[in-house]
C-alpha cells in the first residue's frame, strides 16, 4: 500500500444511553484513501458526518467496525483496533489535527502554544520558537501578542494561532476541520499557500471546507460524504 | 525525542492483575487489571465511593489486596510483586522512586518544619548529608514549583493552600521518582489556583517523563493531564481508553452520564 490513509468500510453509531438507548447512526461503509501529497476534501451538508470521519481518522471517535489504515513509520496501523499507546504514537509522529477551535492551556504564551509540537519532537526551544514566529508572522499575528496566552484573543486570531500550531509540525498526515472558517480574505490566502506547500512536501491531507472558492483551490479530489449516509 | 521509540518498545512500569479488595461483604474494588508505561499518565475517574481511592491505595501498596497482585519494575530492571517486598524495601521505594501527592497537603508535608526541610528531608532519607547541597537542591525545587525562595525557612502552615500543594509536589519530585500517585491534587483549591497548579503539573510530568496514576472526579483535570482514563463505578472499571476517546465518545451509560453532567463554563 502506498496510500497514507486507507479507510475500508468504517461504521460509526452513537448509542445514547441517557435517551433510552436511542441509536444514532453517523456513517456507514466509509471507504476512501489518501495518497502522499494529496488533499482530499470531504463534502456534504452539515450533519452528514464529515467531522465524525475526521475524528475517526484521528482515533478520537472509535469505530464500531471497519478499518482505518494509517501508514506510520513505514508500517500500516489500523487505528480502529490499535491500543491507546499506539494511537498516541501515531498522533505524535504521523497525524496532525487542526480543529476549528483552539483548546488552549491557561498561562501558556502564544509563541509556545505554536512551538510545542516541534519541541515535543525534539527540536530546541529556540529553534522551535523561531519557526513559530515565522508562521505567526505569515498569519498576521502581530509580534506584540506572541508572549500573551491566546485565551483573550479574538476568534479569528485564535484560529490563526491554531493553524500555525497545526502547520508547524512536519507530520506526514494533516486533518483540517474548517481551517478558514472565520478568516478574512488575506489570511485565507495564506492558508491556501500553506496547504500547497504541504502538498509539495508530500503531506497527505483530509479537509472540511465550506467555502467553495477555497475548496477549488486546495482539493485534489472530493469525497462526497452523503454516499456514506447512515440513515437506514 | 529519543524516548519516542522507547515508548513503542519499552516494558510496563506498573502492572495490576485482577486486583480486588473487599471489606466483609462489600467489594470496594473488583478485578482491576491494567499496565502503566513510563511517561504515561492514567486518570481514574468516578464518583465518591466508586473505589478509585481504594484502588490508588492498593496500587501504592498502602493497602493489602484481597485478591490479585501489583508488580513494579524496579530501577534495576527487575519486576517485583509488591506484596513480596519487605517493609524496608517498600519504604525505600516510597522515598525514592515513587511519589504520593495527597489532596490535603497537610497529609504529605510536615506542617511545623520549614519548607526547605520538607524538601530536604526526602534527600536526607536517601543518604544526602551535605547541608549546602541539600539547601541548593531545595531552593532549586521551590523555584521550579514557583515558590519564592525567600520563603524557604518558613513553615508550610504559613503558606496558602496553593503554595502548600506546590510544596508537596516539590517534596515528592526532588528524588527523581519515576512514578507518582496523585489523589485529587487540585481538590481543595480555588479555580484560579487550580489552573496554575495543573499547568505546572502538566509541564513537570512531560519534562521529567513521569508515569502518573491520578485519581480525580474532575473530568477537566483528566483531560488536561492524562493520556488514558479508567472510569470506575461500584468498584469496577466500566470503561477505559484514550482520554479524548472516553470523554468525546463515551460508550457506557455511566460514562455518558459523567460526561454529560459537566456544566459548561
Concise structural overview:
With 232 residues, chain A is an alpha/beta fold. Chain A has helices at 50-58, 84-93, 110-120, 125-138, 155-167, 185-200, 212-218, and strands spanning 5-16, 22-34, 39-43, 65-72, 75-78, 95-98, 173-177, 204-208, 221-224. Chain A has one domain: Rossmann fold, CATH 3.40.50.
User: What's the total number of strands of chain A?
Assistant: 9
- Quaternary organisation: heterodimer
| SS class of chain A | alpha/beta
**Biggest sheet, spatial arrangement of strands of chain A:** 6-7-8-3-9
The largest sheet of chain B, given as strand count, sense and whether it forms a barrel, is: 6 strands, mixed
CATH classification, class level of chain A: Alpha Beta
| CATH homologous superfamily label of chain A | P-loop containing nucleotide triphosphate hydrolases
Helix content of chain B: 40-55%
Describe the structure in your own words.
The complex is a heterodimer of chains A (232) and B (265). Chain A contains 7 helices and 9 strands. Chain A has helices at 50-58, 84-93, 110-120, 125-138, 155-167, 185-200, 212-218; strands at residues 5-16, 22-34, 39-43, 65-72, 75-78, 95-98, 173-177, 204-208, 221-224. In chain A, the strands form 2 sheets. A 5-stranded parallel sheet of chain A has the order 6-7-8-3-9, with helices on both faces. In chain A, strand 4 and strand 5 (75-78) form a beta hairpin. In chain A, helix 3 (110-120) packs across helix 4 and helix 3 (110-120) packs parallel to helix 5 (155-167). The model of chain A has no long low-confidence stretch (mean pLDDT 92). By secondary structure, chain B is an alpha/beta fold. Chain B has a single domain (1-111, 178-261), classed as P-loop containing nucleotide triphosphate hydrolases (Rossmann fold, 3-Layer(aba) Sandwich). Helix content of chain B is 40%, strand content 24%. Chain B contains 11 helices and 10 strands. In chain B, the strands form 2 sheets. Chain B has a 6-stranded mixed sheet with strand order 6-7-8-3-9-10, sandwiched between helices. In chain B, helix 5 (115-125) packs parallel to helix 7 (161-173) and helix 6 (131-144) crosses helix 7. Chain B is globular. In chain B, 43% of the residues are buried. Chain A binds chain B through residues 14-18, 55, 59-62, 84-89, 92-93, 105-108, 120-122, and chain B through 1-2, 4, 7-8, 37, 40, 195-196, 198-199, 202, 206, 224, 227-228, 241-242, 244-245, 248-249, 251-253, 256-257, 260. Chain B: Involved in beta-(1-->2)glucan export. Transmembrane domains (TMD) form a pore in the inner membrane and the ATP-binding domain (NBD) is responsible for energy generation. Chain B: This is Phosphonate C-P lyase system protein PhnK.
Amino acid at each position: 500500500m502506498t496510500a497514507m490513509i486507507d479507510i475500508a468500510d468504517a461504521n460509526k453509531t452513537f448509542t445514547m444511553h441517557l435517551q433510552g438507548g436511542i441509536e444514532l447512526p453517523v456513517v456507514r461503509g466509509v471507504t476512501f484513501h489518501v495518497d502522499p501529497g494529496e488533499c482530499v476534501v470531504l463534502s456534504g451538508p452539515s450533519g452528514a458526518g464529515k467531522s465524525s470521519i475526521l475524528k475517526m481518522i484521528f482515533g478520537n471517535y472509535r469505530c464500531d467496525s471497519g478499518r482505518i489504515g494509517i501508514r506510520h513509520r513505514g508500517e500500516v496501523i489500523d487505528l480502529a483496533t490499535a491500543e491507546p499507546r499506539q494511537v498516541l504514537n501515531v498522533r505524535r509522529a504521523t497525524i496532525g489535527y487542526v480543529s476549528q477551535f483552539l483548546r488552549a492551556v491557561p498561562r501558556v504564551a502564544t509563541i509556545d502554544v505554536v512551538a510545542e509540537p516541534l519541541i515535543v519532537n525534539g527540536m530546541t526551544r529556540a529553534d522551535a520558537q523561531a519557526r513559530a514566529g515565522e508562521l505567526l508572522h505569515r498569519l498576521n499575528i502581530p509580534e506584540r501578542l506572541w508572549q500573551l496566552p491566546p485565551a483573550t484573543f479574538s476568534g479569528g486570531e485564535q484560529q490563526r494561532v491554531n493553524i500555525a500550531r497545526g502547520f508547524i509540525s512536519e507530520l506526514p498526515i494533516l486533518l483540517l476541520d474548517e481551517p478558514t472558517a472565520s478568516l478574512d480574505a488575506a489570511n485565507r490566502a495564506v492558508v491556501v499557500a500553506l496547504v500547497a506547500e504541504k502538498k509539495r512536501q508530500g503531506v497527505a491531507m483530509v479537509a472540511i471546507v465550506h467555502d467553495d472558492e477555497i475548496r477549488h483551490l486546495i482539493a485534489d479530489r472530493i469525497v462526497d460524504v452523503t454516499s456514506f449516509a447512515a440513515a437506514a | 525525542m529519543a524516548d519516542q521509540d522507547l515508548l513503542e518498545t519499552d516494558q510496563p512500569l506498573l502492572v495490576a492483575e485482577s486486583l480486588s479488595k473487599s471489606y466483609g461483604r462489600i467489594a470496594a474494588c473488583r478485578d482491576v487489571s491494567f499496565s502503566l508505561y513510563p511517561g504515561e499518565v492514567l486518570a481514574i475517574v468516578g464518583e465518591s465511593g466508586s473505589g478509585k481511592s481504594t484502588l490508588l491505595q492498593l496500587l501504592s501498596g498502602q493497602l493489602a489486596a484481597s485478591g490479585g497482585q501489583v508488580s513494579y519494575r524496579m530501577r534495576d530492571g527487575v519486576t517485583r510483586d509488591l506484596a513480596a517486598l519487605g517493609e524496608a524495601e517498600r519504604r525505600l521505594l516510597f522515598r525514592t522512586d515513587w511519589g504520593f501527592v495527597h489532596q490535603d497537603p497537610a497529609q504529605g508535608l510536615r506542617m511545623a518544619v520549614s519548607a526547605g526541610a520538607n524538601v530536604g528531608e526526602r534527600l536526607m532519607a536517601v543518604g544526602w548529608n551535605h547541608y549546602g547541597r541539600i539547601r541548593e537542591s531545595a531552593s532549586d525545587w521551590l523555584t521550579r514549583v514557583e515558590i519564592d525562595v525567600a520563603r524557604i525557612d518558613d513553615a508550610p502552615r504559613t503558606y496558602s493552600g496553593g503554595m502548600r500543594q506546590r510544596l508537596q509536589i516539590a517534596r515528592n519530585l526532588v528524588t527523581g521518582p519515576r512514578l507518582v500517585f496523585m489523589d485529587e491534587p487540585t481538590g481543595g483549591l480555588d479555580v484560579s489556583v487550580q489552573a496554575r497548579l495543573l499547568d505546572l503539573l502538566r509541564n513537570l510530568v512531560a519534562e521529567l517523563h513521569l508515569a502518573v496514576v491520578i485519581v480525580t472526579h474532575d473530568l477537566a483535570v483528566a483531560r488536561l493531564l492524562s493520556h488514558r482514563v479508567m472510569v470506575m463505578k461500584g468498584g469496577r472499571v466500566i470503561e477505559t481508553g484514550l482520554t479524548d476517546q472516553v470523554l468525546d465518545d463515551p460508550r457506557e451509560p455511566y460514562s455518558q452520564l459523567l460526561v454529560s453532567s459537566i456544566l459548561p463554563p
